[in-house]
Amino acid sequence: MSEFSLVIKNARINDTTISDIGINNGKIEKIGKLNNGKTYIDANKHYVINGFVNSHCHLDKSNLLDKMTEDHLGKTLEENRLLLKKLKSSYSESDIEKRATDTIEKMLSKGITAIRTQVDVDPTAGVVPIKSLLKLREKYKDRVYIQIAAFPQEGVVDEAKRDLMERAMELGADVVGGLPLVEAKGNEKRHLEILFELAKKYNKNLDIQVDETNDPRMAILPEVIKKTKEENFNGRVTVTHAIALSRLPTEKAKEIIEQMKALRINVIVTPSANMITRFAEVSDLWIRPSNSITRVTELYDNGINVALGTDNVRDIFYPFGNCSMIRELHMLVSATRMTTRDYIDAAISMATTNGAKLLGLNYGIEEGRQADIIITDGTSKLDILNSDETIPCVIKNGNILFLDKNRLERGSN
């Protein structure tokens, strides 16, 4: 009788080590020289890493491109929000499930084993998107871990909108999402207050989209930091985007990053969607129609947990995307010039173990860790970034979801 249910032979687990990985009961049980298991895969010295974690996406909005016309493309962020409201008025559970299912299947083929999705909760669609994604979370529970954040796309200050968020949490949302900039001017702080109230009431973590514009005068991140400290929510708050940080004077940015580190605030970056976001062009020293990405390298250098997401996929806000984290990694390292060996390693971690930490998953290619594993096309971290975006082998909870032996036998691309 074999000692392991699955053994991955000849796995490259770091730049200098080729070893075997023995898996039982959904966990990595042993790393070393092993006999073949009941089932075995020869990794042929390819890099073996944890599955990709897509820490921020919008499954309920994905593939809305199929409902759009050519004149809907190339709009500003605010114009896109108005268009979204129009398209959402015809939402149905079956429609959302069909579009989201297609996206999830593509993510699986790209090696994504865990997802946090922000799901709209607002008067236009009600809780229909939440109900749809709760069904899919259950349907896919053995193939991909899905965490749902209730996302107040149209705000939360109005009582009716807050009631909808309450309903979403009661239905089973995992995280309280937020979007302060959609509120009427002056209500952004109240938006944050309500988010923290909800998070405390339902004992949930927070994931708040902040500062999607690179205009530092509109930055709400300092208020998030202040509220996190007041509510003693250390380690339980994530901010997505935080782009205005890139435009602040360096010394001021350093102060903010130090405060974030002390409060263990996580950051999620969504490079492609961040770079494409467009604003109305006005005659103003601070406002540019183009956008940027937050200070990723400075955040990493200061010990902030930075994770990665695809954000929108083929929808109003980002009409491109093929669900690939490798594509996002390429945009990240290119736009932020993360070209040293240390930063390339860091980028891979942002797409895997850092995201897993954010979602509460026990990732790492180490004994005792969760066996959510991909065998890549590469024999180095740089190879991974340059490789084909469809992963040769995807393993979830120790079970093989996808295996292309021919690609592994051919060696690295």
Automatic annotation (TrEMBL):
InterPro entries, per the entry: Amidohydro-rel (IPR006680), Metal-dep_hydrolase_composite (IPR011059), Metal_Hydrolase (IPR032466), Metallo-hydrolase_Enzymes (IPR052349)
GO-annotated molecular function: hydrolase activity, acting on carbon-nitrogen (but not peptide) bonds, in cyclic amidines; metal ion binding
Domain of life, source organism: Archaea
Location of the Amidohydrolase-related domain: 48-400
Listed CDD domains: Bact_CD
Keywords (A to Z) from UniProt: Hydrolase, Metal-binding
Xref: SUPFAM superfamilies: Composite domain of metallo-dependent hydrolases, Metallo-dependent hydrolases
PANTHER family xrefs: BLL3847 PROTEIN, CYTOSINE DEAMINASE
Record's protein name: Cytosine deaminase
Species of origin: Candidatus Methanofastidiosum methylothiophilum
